[in-house]
Each structure stands twice: as structure tokens, then as C-alpha cells.
Design brief:
This protein has one domain (21-215): YmcC-like fold. With 217 residues, it is mainly β. It has strands spanning 21-22, 42-49, 53-68, 71-80, 84-93, 96-103, 108-116, 124-127, 134-135, 138-155, 158-174, 177-189, 193-201, 204-215. Residues 1-26 have low confidence and may be disordered. The two termini are 18 Å apart. Strands 1, 2, 3, 4, 5, 6, 7, 8, 9, 10, 11, 12, 13 and 14 form a 14-stranded antiparallel sheet that branches. It contains no helices and 14 strands.
């Protein structure tokens, strides 16, 4: 999801890196997915950055794919009121959902693992967010946690059921001691995808993205 800070999310602005394209790829069913990637699916979000700006962001799955590190990502065309057109890349395979993004704070391509649909509540997964494990020459990692499942959440007057809340803590290793620099909270609805995300810095919500409408194919 395209955001002012990540991009989404984010949430997220995803940039193309050298990759092999695969135009003929079978996308998984959207009915049981918390992160649909079916061609033609669209989402529209309202994005708010604390004390800074607001934005409206539209995403549409193009049906094309790109390869990063031998993994297939699904291409998403984005349109932002503030930033114009762009492209994002979603990963959805082997029970895992992830996004590959340029993080404005880190200044490098980041991969955030949003969820594994076999994980239980409280389950933590430690992953490396960059290809070389470094962000600005500092070792970094993410702690990915399933916070809650089977939630009901109301956004803009619409109630979503079967919602999963996941959290991604982005940490830096300062002299052998990992410390969280910022965190993302994601809310994913079954058969719909991301309905809300929040970026937290120093204990406060800096950016929030909420769904306005969607069409899943």
C-alpha cells in the first residue's frame, strides 16, 4: 500500500528493482485469502499523516508479476492524489503475505512479512527485512507478530468480520542490542485484504490508512 513513509503500507511506495517479468501467472483464489492478488481487484484508501497531509490512494492488481530473489510478486498499479501513479508488489504464496517497499526512513528496499495464515495468536517470526540484512550499514530485523484473529472491525460505517491484526516491529542492532525504531499494525479481512494500517513512532501513531471501498475479483 502506498504511503508517504513506506509505502504501503502503511503503510508504502514500492519501487521497481531489476527483475524478470512473468506475464502468464496463475493467481490464487481470493475467497480464502487475507491478501488477494487476483487480476482486476481494486482498493481505495484514505491516508492521513499526523500534522502533515492527507491523501487518497487507489490500487489495482494488473495481472502481471515480477521476480525478486526468485520469488514471484504480483504487480499493483497505484494512483495517489498527492504523488501520482506508481507500482507496488505483493507477495502471496506458501501461506505467507508480504510487501516489498522503499522505506522512506530506512532509505532502502524493505520486505515486510504481513502474515502467515498458519500462525497462531502470539506467534512471533523474526525475519531480515533487507537482502543483505543491513539498513544504513546497521544490522536490522523485523519481529512479526499475530496479535489477534477473528476480529470484527468497523471502518467508515462498514463492518468487517474475520479480521486478523498483525504487528511488525522494525528493529536496529545498536552494539548488540536490538531496539525498535518504528512499528506497523495491519488489519487484514478475509477475502478483502488490508482494511487498515498504522505506523507508530515513539509510541504515537504517525500515519494511518483506512479503506474507503474495494472490488475483489
Amino acid at each position: 500500500m502506498k504511503r508517504n513513509l513506506l509505502v504501503i503500507l502503511a503503510v508504502l511506495t514500492l519501487f521497481y528493482v531489476s527483475c524478470k517479468k512473468d506475464s502468464a501467472n496463475t493467481t490464487p483464489s481470493s475467497a480464502d485469502s487475507y491478501f488477494p492478488v487476483t487480476s482486476g481487484s481494486t482498493w481505495r484508501y484514505y491516508d492521513f499523516v499526523q500534522g502533515s497531509s492527507t491523501d487518497t490512494i487507489t490500487l489495482k492488481m494488473t495481472g502481471g508479476t515480477s521476480i525478486f530473489n526468485n520469488k514471484t510478486y504480483y504487480n499493483t498499479a497505484t494512483k495517489s492524489t498527492n504523488s501520482g501513479a506508481g507500482t507496488e508488489y505483493f507477495y502471496s504464496a506458501n501461506h505467507s503475505y508480504a510487501i516489498r517497499a522503499l522505506n522512506a526512513y530506512a532509505g532502502t528496499i524493505i520486505e515486510l512479512k504481513l502474515y502467515n495464515d498458519t500462525a497462531t495468536v502470539g506467534n512471533n517470526l523474526i525475519s531480515t527485512p533487507t537482502d543483505n540484512g543491513l539498513v544504513d550499514v546497521i544490522p536490522a530485523r523485523t519481529i512479526n507478530t499475530v496479535v489477534a484473529k477473528n476480529l470484527t472491525r468497523t471502518i467508515n460505517g462498514k463492518t468487517f468480520t474475520d479480521v486478523i491484526h498483525t504487528k511488525v516491529d522494525f528493529q536496529y542492532d545498536y552494539s548488540g542490542n536490538y531496539q525498535t525504531g518504528f512499528s506497523y499494525d495491519f488489519y487484514l479481512a478475509k477475502g478483502i485484504g488490508m482494511i487498515e494500517s498504522q505506523l507508530t513512532i515513539l509510541g504515537g501513531t504517525y500515519e494511518e490508512e483506512v479503506i474507503l471501498d474495494y472490488s475483489i475479483k
